[in-house]
Specification:
CATH class of the largest domain: Alpha Beta
Largest sheet: 6 strands, mixed
Radius of gyration: 22 Å
CATH topology of the largest domain: D-Maltodextrin-Binding Protein, domain 2
InterPro entries: SsuA/THI5 (IPR015168)
CATH architecture of the largest domain: 3-Layer(aba) Sandwich
Oligomer: single chain
Protein name: ABC transporter substrate-binding protein
Keywords: Signal
Shape: globular
Pfam families: NMT1 (PF09084)
């Protein structure tokens, strides 16, 4: 049965229509002096998009590519960067011809595609920024002192999320798998991430379901603890780059220049993950330790621009979720995905890049001198942290079940013989101890002492 469309969704749709009809013009039309302006919409604090947004802007690679392009065609190019909190306003501006290229999460990408078709201003998905093969980029968190421990505890509770976002999709799917009706059994609050974070802190929301980097930020600040790891769904989540079809057709060389710049930014992030995290932290005001949790060498996100079949298949599975909420009718995903420009930007290296998979999660320590060290096991990391004392800046461990990286001091630790096993959530740790006689949860400081 199709769910009733929430009033907040109807209002958001009306706002989008108002923005579209109230704006005119072409984002990349030539200025009076002949300069061509390319407008890029991005989300600075959604740090899974940094290779097409914050980091790319800081590195200046797109401007460099356009300068080289201008030297060939005699055109002067200018880049206008526009920062937003979520993908919805980027879509509104794209369908108003005010933004040429935008980056957003998988669920907003589908809404982007649907709105573009609806308003006869089609858009195309041309690359991926970062992804997690299991869904670990989204997390449901509660207040630190909350008695909520499992998804079942959310019955009758108020949960803040951003309707239509990837985090909302995680919430809906997680609740449905637990036998909980997302519309009837919980009170969903449609809020911007920052508003939801404040609501959680004030107690006006019992839980918060959000996308990168909000869960990690709140956990790092001691303002939240994880209730549900999105990777438990075992469904890929990703962010990607969408472009106005008209722009792509009229200025394909400019789009390819953007994608070459994104590829370069991705290579920089992989080669210099600490420097990239520090750069993004300076630009966004986010703690570098939080940025590194997601974007680090063994972070939650894998940065790879290629349009992998598994991600496209996951996007198709997202359509019914959005349709049941009344956010889209249908989306032709195969028509929306267009890898022609990315293939040309990569050249002969594309097949090999497309075939590459996500790296294996490893425990990692970031020391105050700027160096990092990875470990084969969380137990080995604990021993190193105990020995290093106050020279440790941050320590990260992969969840024993899902592989999702988390702060070592925020993880739920289980002692099982000589092994120390980390989990993102208490419910995952409970499930492990229930199946392993003798295993027990222990505080972080006790886990450290046991490892040393």
């Amino acid at each position: 049965m199709k769910r009733a469309i929430p009033t907040t969704v109807l209002l958001a749709t009306a706002l989008t229509a108002t923005l579209v009809t109230g704006c005119g013009g072409d984002a990349n039309a030539g200025d009076d002096d002949g300069t061509v302006t390319v407008t890029v919409g991005y989300q600075s604090k959604t740090i899974n998009t940094v290779t097409a947004g914050t980091l790319l802007r800081e590195l200046g690679y797109f401007e460099q590519e356009l300068k080289a392009r201008g030297a060939e065609d005699g055109t002067t190019y200018r880049v206008r960067w526009q920062d937003y909190a979520t993908g919805a306003p980027i879509t509104a501006q794209m369908t108003a011809d005010k933004i040429d290229i935008g980056s957003m999460g998988d669920f907003p990408l589908l809404i982007n595609a649907a709105r573009g078709e609806q308003l006869d201003r089609p858009t195309r998905l041309v690359s991926v920024t970062g992804y997690n093969p299991r869904g670990g980029l989204n997390t449901i968190v509660t207040a630190p002192g909350s008695k909520l421990r499992t998804l079942n505890d959310l019955r009758g509770k108020k949960v803040s999320t951003s309707v239509g976002s990837a985090a909302d999709g995680t919430l809906v799917r997680a609740l449905e798998r637990a036998g909980i009706d997302p519309e009837k059994d919980v009170r969903k609050l449609n809020q911007q991430p920052s508003v939801g974070a404040s609501a959680l802190r004030s107690g006006s929301a019992d839980a918060l379901s959000q996308f990168v980097a909000w869960p990690g930020l709140l956990a790092h600040q001691g303002r939240a603890r994880a209730l549900y790891d999105g990777a438990a769904l075992n469904l890929p989540t990703f962010h990607g780059v969408t472009v106005r079809e008209r722009f792509a057709e009229e200025r394909p060389a400019v789009l390819e220049a953007f994608l070459r710049a994104q590829i370069r930014a991705t290579e920089h992030l992989r080669a210099e993950p600490v420097a990239a995290a520090e750069s993004v932290a300076r630009a966004t005001g986010l703690p570098a330790e939080v940025v590194y949790l997601y974007n680090g060498a063994h972070g939650i996100a894998t940065f790879d621009p290629t349009l992998k079949p598994a991600l496209v298949d996951a996007l198709k599975k997202d359509v019914p979720v959005l349709a049941s909420a009344g956010l889209v009718r249908d989306v032709d995903v195969d028509a929306f995905v267009d890898d022609r420009y990315l293939k040309r930007a990569y050249g002969p290296a594309y097949p090999r890049a497309l075939a590459a998979g996500a790296p294996t999660s490893r425990a990692e320590v970031w020391f105050k001198d700027g160096t990092t060290r990875s470990f084969a096991s969380p137990t080995a990391l604990l021993g190193a942290v105990a020995a290093a004392g106050d020279t440790v800046r941050a320590a990260y461990v992969p969840d024993t079940t899902t592989g999702t990286s988390w702060f070592a001091d925020k993880a739920v630790w289980v002692a099982d013989g000589t092994k120390r096993l980390p989990f993102v959530t208490a419910s995952a740790a409970d499930a492990y101890t229930a199946g392993h006689p003798g295993a027990r949860t222990v505080p972080y400081d006790q886990a450290l002492r046991g490892a040393s």
